[in-house]
Design brief:
This protein has 764 residues and is of the alpha/beta class. 41% of the residues lie in helices and 12% in strands. Mean pLDDT is 94; it is low at 109-114.
């Protein structure tokens, strides 16, 4: 019998020590050359292929590497870049590539406004990864404009490693893109397919035996017309391509299953982590000419695989199909997990024994395949060690805290209800705060300078004492407050110099969390985050932010915002325990944040911002699953915020998502002020708020902080005038798209100076 084979759908790009991030940022800074950046990338790819081969992976992906984002890579592959980027044909070079990602460099942007903008950014399905949204014209011309898939396949081949090149499928590419005008992106499919044919034919000509075409939109609700597009498209591609492995993830195929099964592909992927129940339907319907790729090892979470459960699924598939027709796979790309536990020498030993990062998941895949060759898997040492770890986790007294569970169980509807409706609250707030028309503020963080990062590192290593570090942070806060007063902002923030990350910072002060030292994952481009690990019941032992907020307020008469991260985002941006419903964990976090909000108010902080950028991100992929999630998310936010008096103004912030689907739930949050990302879309996102007649105050972003360019005051005025066409001026705030943590001080001062000037011009 042919041994069962293993595969991964993708591997983390950034490197175990974030080598890619450091190299890309060095290239942007001009301290290394393009050739040096390319060499770092080649070394990383080589290391990652060898890591997977040595772990026993049979189908190893290539072209899953990216300097910034794989959707941008696809846009470059097919030549779908807007004119403003400066692409004139031929192959897309690295300067053009990064211009699409980051906008026109400031030195080149003089006198230009919207033509300098980068591509829009939004969340990749329900993950915290962001992708750049391709822009398509009605008369879009596609051309093969990159050799990347072929180049990387050949690089692996020179190492003696046969890989499976990965491409974002043509239908997903179109449906995830943004049409410039009122037309259906799928009308461009016939123009796009010849480019896909060309690259697939090239891969076949250089020896590729198979390719992986990702069509994650198959996990979404599709129209009949969208489903119908698959069959002719894949017939066209299969005629010239190597064997096609069709891959969808993050959810089940459900009503798209029959569509996928009819396509001329070699295998169909089942994300059995997200939707294990779909396996039965696949086993009944899978045509005899197709292999089943069974995703049993999570590509999104970091808990050890449950070998007993996974082996049962694999055995069921093998019993029905035979080992030769089953691939043991990760559920999705491992892009969303940290690279390796090897460097986590400081991680709590008990919890560490419950974890598996990307490299450990490679070993899990190999072991699961091995068990299929054994008469009795239960006698294998790897099986026994896995079972012991699972049992230890189930019975650990650190996980379940009765007082936390009792508090959540005793909650009532009144816990999620403000004292008065918004129309009454806002009058009291304005009397107390006296903000002008078009009040200006920022989202929370200010630049995390080299000095701040160095001081934090020294403190962590014990090279800087607590008192000295506290004084350093107070000096930073004092400087930030002075900067904001000089700029003329109307509502200030303390700048968050003490915070390493908007979720990790809170997790470090909550019970139920542990932390890795090197558990980085890519969020977008060179931006990496280190999600905390939420393993048990959550509570707040003591105040987390009150002292910093009170100190900052003591430095100024201008209102100072208390800055918190909301329960939905803390949940979404953590690696979350999988042994109880997520809604229960979210409610536990909500009560912990409620305690902090109440303490801030008691300490005299009159404006409190609870950020929920992950609200839309957590929305289930299928509409039938939306209502339960949104109900739980709204309840959690309102539990967090409803313990305060009417005079306390509650802000929230959301960014990089489409709001139309959830606008009624955003209104149900009942935040007094919501700030949103809006500059890249040129205020288009406000359409959802206008159509809904959103009742509360809104701060649409006028500065894209993910680009180094500084928008002029005139550009900001233009954006705010567009905003005022959708939202009454008396309900508009003026702010950047997001926090300023990643920006430098010179551009921050310049952009905020222009922002304040724009607000003053509009007031006049």
């Amino acid at each position: 019998m042919k041994p069962i084979q293993t595969r991964t759908l993708g591997y983390p790009r950034i490197g175990a020590n974030r080598e890619l991030k450091k190299a890309v940022e060095a290239y942007w800074a001009g301290t290394i050359s393009q050739d040096e950046l390319a060499e770092t990338a080649a070394q990383l790819r080589s290391k990652h292929w060898k890591q997977q081969r040595n772990a026993g992976i049979d189908l190893i992906p290539s072209n899953d590497f990216s300097f910034y984002d794989h959707v941008l890579d696809t846009a470059c592959l097919v030549g779908a870049l807007p004119e403003r980027i400066g692409f004139g044909g031929g192959n897309v070079d690295l300067p053009i590539y990064f211009t699409a990602a980051r906008g026109v460099p400031p030195a080149e942007a003089a006198g230009r406004i919207e033509e300098t903008a980068a591509l829009e950014m939004t969340k990749w399905f329900d993950t915290n990864y962001h992708y750049l949204v391709p822009e398509l014209q009605k008369d879009q011309f596609f051309r093969l404009s990159s050799t990347k898939p072929v180049d990387e396949y050949l690089q692996a081949k020179t190492l003696g490693i046969e890989t499976v090149p990965v491409l974002l499928g043509p239908i997903s590419f179109l449906l995830l893109s943004k049409p410039d005008g009122d037309f259906d992106a799928l009308t461009l499919l016939e123009r796009l397919l010849p480019v896909y044919q060309s690259v697939l034919a090239q891969l076949k000509n250089v020896g590729a035996q198979s390719v992986q075409l990702d069509e994650p939109v198959l996990a979404l609700d599709l129209t009949d017309a969208q489903r119908t597009a698959f069959a002719p498209a894949y017939s066209t591609l299969a005629a010239v391509a190597p064997r096609i492995h069709l891959t969808s993830y993050f959810g089940g195929l459900r009503d798209n299953l029959d569509t996928a099964l009819t396509l001329p592909v070699a295998s169909i992927h089942c994300d059995a982590v997200s939707e294990p129940g779909e396996l039965n339907a696949l086993l009944e319907k899978l045509p005899a000419d197709k292999t089943l790729s069974l995703g049993v090892v999570s590509g999104r979470n970091i808990w050890k695989n449950d070998y007993e459960k996974s082996n049962a699924l694999i055995s069921k598939a093998v019993s029905k199909l035979g080992a030769e027709r089953v691939l043991v796979s990760s559920s999705s790309s491992l892009l969303h997990t940290p690279v390796s536990l090897e460097a986590e020498t400081g991680l709590d030993d008990e919890v560490k024994n419950w974890l598996a990062f990307a490299d450990e998941k490679l070993g899990e895949l190999a072991e699961l395949a091995k068990f299929q060759r054994l008469e009795s898997a239960g006698s294998d040492p790897a099986w026994q060690a896995n079972a012991a770890a699972a049992a230890a986790r189930r019975t650990s007294p650190r996980i379940h805290v009765p007082t936390v569970k009792t508090r959540c169980a005793a909650s009532t509807p009144d816990d999620a209800k403000r004292q008065s409706p918004f129309a009454e609250r806002i009058v009291k707030q304005q009397d107390a705060l006296n903000f002008p028309l078009f009040p200006t503020t920022t989202i929370g963080s200010f630049p995390q300078t080299t000095e701040i990062r160095q001081a934090r590192a020294k403190h962590r290593k014990g090279e800087l004492g607590d008192a000295e570090y506290t004084q350093f942070l107070k000096n930073e806060i004092r400087s930030v407050v002075r900067e904001q007063e000089e700029l003329g902002l109307d509502c200030l923030v303390h700048g968050e110099p003490e915070r390493n990350d908007m979720v990790e910072y809170f997790g470090q002060q909550l019970e139920g969390y542990v932390f890795s030292r090197n558990g980085w994952v890519q969020s977008y481009g060179s931006r990496c985050v280190k999600p905390p690990i939420l393993f048990g019941d959550v509570s707040r032992p003591k105040p987390m932010t009150v002292d910093w907020a009170v100190f900052a307020q003591s430095l100024t008469e201008t209102p100072m915002k208390g800055m918190l991260t909301g329960p939905v985002t803390i949940l979404q941006w953590s690696f979350v325990r999988d042994d109880q419903p997520r809604a229960e964990t979210m409610k536990q976090i909500a009560f912990a944040i409620r305690d902090e909000v109440n303490d801030l108010e008691a300490a005299g902080i009159k404006v409190i911002q609870i950020d929920e950028p992950a609200l839309r991100e957590g929305l289930p992929l299928r509409r039938t699953d939306h209502a339960a999630y949104l109900s739980n998310a709204v309840e959690a936010f309102r539990i967090s915020t409803s313990g305060v008096h009417d005079e306390t103004q509650i802000h929230t912030h959301m960014c990089y998502c489409e709001f139309n689907e959830v606008i009624d739930s955003i209104a149900a949050l009942d935040a007094d002020v919501i700030s949103i990302e809006a500059s890249r879309s040129r205020m288009e996102l406000l359409g959802a708020f206008q159509d809904f007649n959103y009742p509360n105050q809104i701060g649409p972003g006028v500065w894209d902080i993910h680009s180094p360019r500084v928008p002029s005051a005139e550009e900001m005025v233009e954006l705010l005038q567009k905003a005022a066409q959708a939202i009454p001026a008396e309900r508009l705030w003026v702010n950047p798209d997001c926090g300023l943590k990643t920006r430098a001080w010179p551009e921050t001062r310049a952009a905020l100076t222009n922002m304040v000037a724009a607000a003053k011009q509009l007031r006049a």
